[in-house]
Amino acid sequence: MSEAARIEVTAETVERMVASQFPRWAGLPIIPVPASGTDNAMFRLGDELAVRLPRVDWAVAAVHKEQAWLPKLAPHLPLPIPVPLARGAPGGGYPWPWSVCRWVPGETVAPGSIPHETGLARDLGGFLRALWAVDASGGPPPGPHNFGRGAPLRSRDRRAKADMALVGAMYDPAMLAEVWETALAAPAWEGPPVWIHGDPQGGNLLVLDGRLNGVIDFGGLGVGDPACDLIVAWNLFGPEGRAAFRTAIGVDQATWRRGRGWALSTGLTALPYYLDRLPAVARWARRTLDEVLADAEL
Fold it and tell me: Is the predicted pLDDT of residue 4 greater than 70, yes or no?
């Protein structure tokens, strides 16, 4: 889908839909959240609520999924997540369903700007371990709804190799290929499918008073191989944070290597795609690749 397919959502549109569909919240101030992301728009609704609306059609599936599963997962997790309280319908020119959820306070984090990286890494490791431990019976398997997160790493082989060719002028293709083949050679996940967040990167982590206070944006939610949740070890943390995260998460060597493969694959895909579209995302992708190559165990 082209970039032009993303729609803009205004505070005025949200105000009209809230007033007509949820009169009990009419009149509460509506404030755009600048760091909403590329696939969803987010607005604060008063002090305790948030409105989350897809901006692209492929994000609509996440509304149904989050409405169904986040209320069931939340009681088992050690940190707040944005539990939906109401489901909005299309209206006022807006074409898709949307959610009203609890506002989770905190500030998102970016690579190189984390004052207590090892503490954040330990907090996140504990959160993900708790998520993986929740009964995954009936959960959605990997698919288009979560960009295939949780699928076997080998399912990304063709795309990864095509993307290597696109970044060949920026990185040593032979080294990229060696890191990728090492990841593919790791034993596949043999356990039962587990719940995965799918995208626990800095923009989806909320820090308050130096500690992880919440995890948001469960569009990548599904059940499968947990290795994809390890991408954050390379796209957010440096060596010290990565070591603390690895200790806290407690995965075996095979899962860690598959996680490194996931980080390499996502960085390879994002860098050429966003290089001219969103330079900030391209810088994140380049950092991910740099960390993967610096940390590679060949």
Answer: no
Would you say 69 and 221 are in contact if contact means Cβ atoms under 8 Å apart? yes
Helix (H) or strand (E) holding 133: helix 117-133
In the numeric block, the tokens 């996940």 are attached to 189
Which residue's structure tokens are 């995302």? 281
Q: How distant is the alpha carbon of residue 95 from its chain centre?
A: 24
Parse the chain into domains and list their residue ranges: 3-102, 117-295
The CA-to-CA distance between both ends of the chain, in Å, stands at: 36
CA distances 58 to 14, 40, 62, Å, are 20, 10, 8
The angle subtended at Cα 179 by Cα 178 and Cα 185, nearest 5°, is 85
The yes-or-no verdict on residue 3 having pLDDT over 60 is no
Q: What is the pTM of this model?
A: 0.94
Q: Which CATH architecture has domain 117-295?
A: Alpha-Beta Complex (3.90)
pLDDT tens digit sequence for 75-115 = 999 999 999 999 999 998 999 999 999 999 999 998 878 88
What is the arithmetic mean of pLDDT over 122-141? 98
Helical (H) or strand (E) element with 207 = strand 205-208
Q: Which tokens go with 166?
A: 């696109």
Q: Which positions ≥6 away from 86 have C-beta within 8 Å?
A: 22, 99, 100
Domain 3-102, CATH homologous superfamily name and number: Phosphorylase Kinase; domain 1 (3.30.200.20)
pLDDT, tens digit, for every residue of 28-57? 999 999 865 678 999 999 999 999 999 999
Give residue for tokens 């980080």.
263
